[in-house]
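Q: How would the structure tokens look for this protein?
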Amino acid sequence: MRFPLGLSAESFRLLFHQLSASVFIEDVDGEVIYMNPAAEELFGYAADELVGRASEGVCVPTQEAELPDSSSRALYRRRDGVEFLGETLSCPIQLDADRPEGRLLIVRVASVMEQSLDVLQRLHAITTSDGMAFETRMAEILKLGSDHFGLPLGIQSRVEGHIYVVEHCHDVTGGLAPGLSFDLAETYCSHTLLADGPTGFHHAGGSELREHPCYQTFRLESYLGCPIVVDGERYGTLNFSRAEASRPFAEDDLAFIRLLADWVGNTISKERSRCQLEALANTDALTGLLNRRALMADLRWQIDHARRSSLPLAVVMFDLDHFKRINDTYGHDAGDEVLLAVSTVCKELARSVDRCSRWGGEEFLLLLPDTSTHGALAFSERLLEAIQSRPVTLPCGSVLVMAASLGVTTLRPEEGAEALITRADKAMYEAKTSGRAQVRVAA
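A: Here is the predicted structure in token form.
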């Protein structure tokens, strides 16, 4: 390790040891050869842990912005994983203009105003990105909050009665995952929901909260949380925490987490509306089964998947026997009751990977992935038996025993979706013309 200008480590110690600013000295290869106590305190590393390493090992730039006088602003990561916004003043160490011998780096924590401007710019980038998916938005907002508050654990929860469910989380340790649930009373968020507003504490072990189940179990010292409201109703919480005590939270912190919670609630509401619209576009309004358009999209994907995986794919098409007679005799409301009853049978018998649709009128189409002709035939016979064994009681008191004609086929090499459905339809027609209430396999 060669020191610049012929100086020694002791020389740098005399120059910078008492300086309150964080100082790094690099050699010509970009490796740290000296760091002062202020840098050790700011980054959480002892000098001997970083000396000999590249300075980039402790700097994690994101959207770095060049500033005047060879300065740059970036996110830095402490040893404990907490990130902070800092500004670095960098200048070469050299006597000869053409031969730099090293570099001096002075790092300072950005001012409150600079940090606020940075976090608002990041929030603006998240909220105005039209192409960002919902899951990515939630991940970014949790990371933003964790960075801004210096609390590395961020959670968006859903609260159902007394159950607290983690829906999204930011955890640098990887110890927490979406889907985990806890008793609400055993979380700090119970206080947040009781207060119905932002709450925070920076040193739980030094307060009455030291007896709280959350502190007893997880030893979380710092917590900042706010309720999430979606479409006017309490949904859950947005909260950030860490195991170490932090600075006391200010009014600005409470105001900002309320802003983030409001944004999260609005985003969840928009995603809920999008999913509802998508479901309406893909679902038959009466039966709740897939509609024809959605089934065709699934079928094309299933055909591609079956070919890539060399797995069979079966299709079952069926038509309710004498359905027109029901409508003519009892009215269309009675026909709807029958269609609902049959769709319920389909849902109960189908596996989670199967796809059921109302193809049109009284016709239904089912996709059975990874199913051979023999398996599809056995399924169709069970389906026919279930339809016949469940009489439908109409509002007028009449009881109808239903039957169906079913056609079964499986995918052939190089066959497209339309050809596959046509063969299933022909098999169904054969079942109908051969006496109904039976299953036929396509030739």
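The chain has three domains: 4-110, 115-280, 292-441.

Residues 99 and 258 are 53 Å apart (CA to CA).

Upvote if useful.
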